[in-house]
């Protein structure tokens, strides 16, 4: 009896070690965005976008995280954040960062940001610490004298200003300016030159980071799978495995090694 228990224990230990080794080795590949189950894509401008982003309307039922669907329009990858559309400029799958910019800026030298960059914190994207936040005040009818203003946005007596958040001169801006917008930009240079460099800064965009959404997804990814969310709903979680199977948790359960005891 005790020998068979010991033997059973030994099998359990081997199974545990085997499973651990297996998941470790799969884990090493699991972030490979060029896998075929949820393949990377290119909207036509050369930027290769991969899991956990997925191509809206094209890919395996929402083959990626909720809210990270990319729409290819006019060869540009577009991302929707809290109802506003941004253009993806860069993506780094090894450090989980992306750079995005207002889609409507269209490469103009004197761009206007019409709304704040808003993120829905219940999604998986976060503003990176690499950014600094600038605040723009448009069409101010009254302003402190001798502050540098944005020349190309001057309309008669109305002036527009830009400051780093935290370096806004004391004044009742909200009262005398038509609109005010807050935008993260990739930290570069000092605050002093903002009135000249704000156009470039808006074009360069801001950096976001992403994280794994939940325990089920982390376990799916650790097993070499890809997390999908059918209908964009967290409740409709699907783990897509490389063997083409689907699971509601981890791809190990689709393997056959569990039968080897
Ligand atoms: C996808 O992953 C599977 C299992 O990890 C691997 O065998 C296959 O070579 C990968 N395919 C590509 C294109 O990387
Ligand atoms: C954030 O997302 C949740 C879940 O989809 C939604 O209920 C909520 O209205 C969203 N909030 C904003 C500000 O968009
Ligand atoms: C992604 O980030 C890593 C780590 O910072 C860096 O080594 C790599 O060159 C970056 N890749 C791209 C394509 O920018
Ligand atoms: C920017 O480009 C989009 C399509 O690429 C177009 O619909 C929009 O009118 C353009 N906006 C400006 C200000 O040129
Ligand atoms: C933006 O304009 C500059 C010069 O006006 C040009 O060199 C650059 O290629 C343009 N970029 C895009 C994405 O159109
Ligand atoms: C986003 O970043 C902020 C500041 O770094 C952090 O406090 C917060 O927990 C992050 N949120 C998520 C959902 O990761
Ligand atoms: C500022 O005022 C001008 C002229 O009234 C208008 O054309 C422009 O759209 C306004 N800018 C903003 C950002 O509201």
From TrEMBL:
Pfam families assigned to the protein according to its UniProt record, in alphabetical order: GUB_WAK_bind, WAK_assoc
GO molecular function: polysaccharide binding; protein serine/threonine kinase activity
Signal peptide: 1-28
Catalytic activity: L-threonyl-[protein] + ATP = O-phospho-L-threonyl-[protein] + ADP + H(+); L-seryl-[protein] + ATP = O-phospho-L-seryl-[protein] + ADP + H(+)
Documented EC number(s): 2.7.11.1
Keyword tRNA-binding: no
Location in or out of the cell: Membrane
Domain annotation Wall-associated receptor kinase C-terminal: ranges: 161-244
Name of this protein: non-specific serine/threonine protein kinase
Organism: Actinidia rufa
């Amino acid at each position: 009896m005790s020998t068979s228990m010991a033997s059973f224990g030994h099998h359990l230990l081997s199974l545990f070690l085997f499973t651990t080794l297996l998941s470790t080795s799969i884990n090493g590949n699991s972030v490979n965005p060029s896998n075929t189950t949820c393949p990377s894509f290119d909207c036509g401008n050369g930027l290769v976008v991969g899991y956990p982003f997925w191509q809206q309307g094209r890919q395996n039922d929402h083959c990626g995280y909720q809210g990270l669907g990319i729409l290819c329009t006019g060869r540009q990858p577009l991302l929707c954040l809290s109802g506003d559309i941004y253009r993806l400029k860069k993506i780094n799958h090894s450090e989980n960062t992306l750079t995005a910019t207002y889609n409507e800026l269209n490469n103009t030298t004197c761009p206007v940001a019409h709304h704040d960059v808003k993120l829905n914190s219940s999604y998986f994207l976060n503003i990176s610490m690499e950014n600094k936040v600038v605040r723009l005040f448009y069409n101010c009818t009254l302003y402190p004298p001798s502050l540098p203003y944005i020349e190309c946005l001057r309309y008669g007596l109305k002036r527009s200003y830009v400051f780093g958040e935290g370096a806004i001169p004391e004044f009742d801006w909200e009262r005398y300016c038509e609109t005010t917008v807050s935008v993260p930009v990739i930290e570069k240079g000092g605050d002093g030159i903002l009135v000249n460099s704000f156009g470039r800064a808006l074009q360069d965009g801001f950096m976001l980071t992403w994280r794994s959404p939940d325990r089920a997804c982390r376990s799916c990814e650790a097993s070499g799978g890809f997390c999908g969310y059918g209908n964009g709903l967290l409740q409709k979680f699907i783990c897509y495995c490389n063997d083409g199977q689907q699971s509601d948790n981890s791809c190990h359960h689709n393997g056959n090694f569990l039968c080897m005891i």
